[in-house]
Design brief:
With 142 residues, the protein is mainly alpha-helical. It has one domain. It has two helices and no strands. Helix 1 packs antiparallel against helix 2.
């Protein structure tokens, strides 16, 4: 049944679906950030430091450690950014869902009013039909 809220409900529903897709996308980005951070930690733990040997080996290891730590720092920042973006997407989804539910509720209330009005109209028509058939019976008996 069409109401004045039907088109708004459709628009709000599509906004909710877009927001849900955005949350899924942000979840995937957060998962990628988590995996990259885990990989960076694994890389750091896999670097072995030489206990003796040429200074060049020590310097190379030191450079590798520095690079691994920088990568970890970068991945932590990415992870925090992804968490923030996910939270924003969830907040937007919540707002969109509230808007959708509000207009959906208004639409349902409008439908209830229309059904009540339609039931009253049908009852009135049935009463008129009953009165006419009763009047016809009385007139027919005379």
């Amino acid at each position: 049944m069409k109401t004045r809220y039907s088109s708004l409900v459709t628009v709000k529903k599509s906004a909710v679906q877009k927001s849900e897709q955005e949350v899924q996308k942000k979840n995937a980005e957060l998962k990628s950030a988590d995996e990259a951070l885990e990989l960076a930690y694994t890389t750091l733990y896999d670097i072995t430091t030489p206990h003796d040997g040429v200074v060049a080996n020590f310097l190379t290891t030191q450079a590798l450690l520095h690079t691994a730590r920088a990568q970890i720092k970068h991945n932590k920042e990415w992870q925090n950014f992804a968490k923030d973006q996910l939270q924003l997407a969830k907040d937007n989804l919540k707002k969109d869902m509230i808007e959708y539910e509000k207009f959906h509720y208004l639409e349902l209330e409008e439908i209830k009013k229309l059904l009540v009005a339609q039931a009253k109209l049908e009852a009135k028509e049935l009463d008129e039909i009953a009165l006419m058939s009763y009047a016809n019976r009385i007139i027919g008996d005379k």
